[in-house]
Amino acid sequence: MPLPRATPLFVLMASLLLLGGCGALSSLMPGKKDDDTAAKPGATDAPVAYAIDVQAPKPLKTLLVNYLDLARFQALQGDDRVNLADLNRLIQATPAQARSLLETEGYFNATVKARRDGEQNGLPLVVVEVDPGPRTTVTDLQIGTGGAFQDALTRGDPAAEKLQLNLRRDFKLQPGKPFQQGVWSDAKNTTLAQARGGGYAAASWASTQANVDAPGNTARLELKLDSGPMFHFGEIKTEGLKRYQPQAITNLRTFEKGTPYTEKTLLDFQDRLQRANLFESSVVEIDPDPAVAAATPVTVRVTELSKNQTEVGAGYSDSTGQRVSVEHLNRRLLDRSFFGTDIISRSKVELGRDRQTLESSLLTHALPGANRYLLSGKLQRETVAGAQINSASVRAGRTFESEHIDRLVFLEGLAASTRGGTAGNRIDRSLSGNYHFTVRDLDSIIVPTRGRALHAELAGGYAVSDVAASGPFGRALGRVTLYRPLGDKWFGQARIEAAQVFAKRDVGIPDTLLFRAGGDDSVRGYQYRSLGPLVNGTVSSGRVLLTGSLEATTPIYPPVPALLGAVFIDAGAAANEWNELRPVVGYGVGVRMRSPVGPLRVDIAYGQDVREFRLHFGVGITF
């Protein structure tokens, strides 16, 4: 078949296109070099190493060295290094890129120059000169509101007014502060989360603007919040319960159906669940759907702890010497409910050198209002200052625990037998009503560094003795502990404790209700309960107590911030009357290791009155 006359022209064009395509493909393939270029030393596409000198204030220098392409590509090695042509392009692009980076820190009028300038250590040197100019500062902050939030403000709702004040006060870019893009983004996210946590769970930003006047180096911030509806708590839905009744969860809630939602209320509820000692984990959340805002369901997901738990321990205490203990916990006694609630049983045996204890208790799961009823008994034998004190007690009462407040109200029957020592052989008994409470305002309940804690015990009852007069008595104890940072690296702690038994002098009070000082949580440098009124040269228990302590701690090894050193001074004593009180002093140094159960403490203390050193151990904090 004869070819068309146009075929030679078609073949020629196709051949040229094919050759051109092959050439283009060859130029895109990595590692392929033009023979002439490869033969020329110092060609612009040969890999090159270079040095950089960024001349800028230190914080800005760190920013530029971390994020400039010129600096990042410098770390490439071998054939991956940039060539001279690419280096020249990077140098040309550096001023614009650096100015963009500097703008994120509030420098909108920066001058940046980049150039080749000789060599450094045999490498081509690139110098980046930065004059950041004045920094832009925030001159005005406006946070507008809309939706149900604005309606509540119009009505003069106190909760809405407080939330508005907090949003404005806590915004991270206040007038007078330097404008920074990262802080601006973080401030918007934090403020939105605060609004959602304040009851408007579906809140969003209707608009956010940072109006920067670059010539004037000022920034005006304008934000408008669309709050959506105000959320209220609805029904509680539980997930994960297998053994316990739903009331074990619902009775711990801190709100009623219809209560306005806040994130803090939800977190307090979750904290109570964790403190109940029934659940390995608990998660509490709401449905942020505006359609159910009037009664949003609260979902509680829990993982139950095992029904039975046994712990065996061994240790040493400066108060009672070496000891071993066995403790058993049953979280649902007899696998059944009593009077509409489940009961936790706890039994513990502790055998120590100077103290032996057997105790058992029954504690209900939470009842409405998060209260629990308790019934407990305790037998104890203790050797103190040559005297052997055997005691037995029974308690029945009610307890309440929360993040900030603990309360315990109970009736107690107590009998104490004292043999040896200054008291001779005697038996004292008492029946009393008691009220204990603890109030905490701390940044951390495990390792506090700021805040205060108050503990108080009040009791009133009647005492009966086989060798002394019988009669009514009162008992009061108070302890205040303060925590404060001392500069950047030191933390301070101060404690004062005072107590007194109120009764006629001839009324016999059980020894376990009286007071002695000395030991780890009292006056360090002295033996446990070795400080009290002297009778015929022997220490006895007194009716008044006063102790105090000052302590300062600081990290001692920066790579391990949980390890701290401590210096302290303690003072105090016990006596029968305030005018007979003769406080003694102890002081020393120690080591602290922060842990999930509180600080582990090891102290070496010098008792000034006895002129000897003592080693003290402790775990956790006594409020």
How does this structure look, described?
The chain is an alpha+beta fold. It has five domains: about 80 residues, Roll (Ubiquitin-like (UB roll)); about 90 residues, membrane protein fhac (Ubiquitin-like (UB roll)), CATH 3.10.20.310; about 70 residues, membrane protein fhac (Ubiquitin-like (UB roll)); about 60 residues; about 180 residues, membrane protein fhac: a member of the omp85/tpsb transporter family (Porin, Beta Barrel). Helices cover about 20% and strands about 45% of the residues. The protein contains ten helices and 27 strands. A 16-stranded antiparallel beta sheet has the order 10-11-12-13-14-15-16-17-18-19-20-23-24-25-26-27, with no helix packed on it. The protein starts with 6 loop residues before the first helix and ends with a strand. The relative contact order is 0.05. The N terminus is likely disordered.
